[in-house]
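Most newcomers find our protein records easier to grasp once they have seen one. A learned vocabulary of local backbone shapes supplies the integers on the structure line. An example says more than a description, so a record of this kind follows:
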Amino acid sequence: MKTRYRLAILVTHPVQYYYRLYRELARHPGIELMVYYCWKGTIDRPYYDPTFQAEIEWDLPLLEGYPYRFLGGFYPRPFPAGGRFLNPGIVPALVSGRYDAVFVWGYNYLTAWLAFLAAAASRTPVFLGGNVAPRPRRPLPVRVLKRALLRPIFARSAAIMSECESNARYYISHGADPERVYWNPAAVDNDFFQGRARELSGRKEEIKARLGLPPGLPVILFVGRLDPRKRALDLLEAFRRLGDPPEASLVFVGEGAQRRDLESLIARHRLPNVVITGFRNQTEMPRFLAAGDVFVLPSEYDPSPRALNEAMNFSLPAVVSDGVGTAGDLAVDGENGFVFPVAEAGELADRLRKLLRDPGLRKEMGERARERVLKWNYRKGTEEIYNALRSLDRQ
């Protein structure tokens, strides 16, 4: 059995939630790592992200602490659609690299399929991962075609790196071998967020005052894009049902296509104590989390949203829809928050009332949330990836 394995990772661009995992992998004594990127993202300059409707430039050291290469290639600018990445350089990189495995992050872009072909030609085992989950209400022809295309890839993968239980179910339902599924948890930098939570402890009322919110009222917090998939309008409707005036304040941290709709409804219903902050960068997020009392994510489809992890690190109970992929294993109904049916604003309002009217329940569920998220960390992901590499000697 080998003592050191050469691992290549293919990913579209530097992502704020993944670089810490690469650092952990690079430090592991049994792994020799190389990360291949299709596109530089925000590394050279900010880019306009139409989903956020804002210029994005992440304020984190996304390329520090691990080896990487940018692949030359073709993609639309300024904001490339994932499926249109085409980086032929991945073929010689994998064929000549003599890697023990290549971890292909996602499959919905052309370069990933080039990587599958190159891996087959060089007999390099493929590890497959990405934040996907069963999507409701897909047309039958789309489901049939997708299953036909994906089943051979999933079935032949040497390992599936699953971010959560719903992620694993998706891969298995499309032909993956359950014995080859490993847990690479959807994680954030728990140490950073819990450290900031301690630093900001006791400053809740100060932060609320800066946001123009009244003292005393609990704060419902939403973090994410303001677009139809996240269903922020459902949260606003649930908030409206909490009373006149509502028994809480509401903060939307994010930007997107539905901001004007939200502002219009806030004005029409004369809803008090609602704040929309616009896009905020990663290092700014802790002060908004410190102001919150309940975190809400009403998404229609959201495979593994890291905003949920960040909120749990701040001991916030979470109320999430059953369209959130990590509902059930990270956010557990009745334990560290509540799960409600997608698009049911009345059900969401009922769950919020329970938490808003019972500070003791909020505190108890928040403590359980903080304890649970500690298990979702990059060290576990590194350990599981190494175990998958070691399993190659037995295949």
Remarks:
- The chain has 14 helices and 15 strands.
- The radius of gyration is 22 Å.
- The chain has a mean pLDDT of 93.
- The first strand starts at residue 5 and ends at 11.
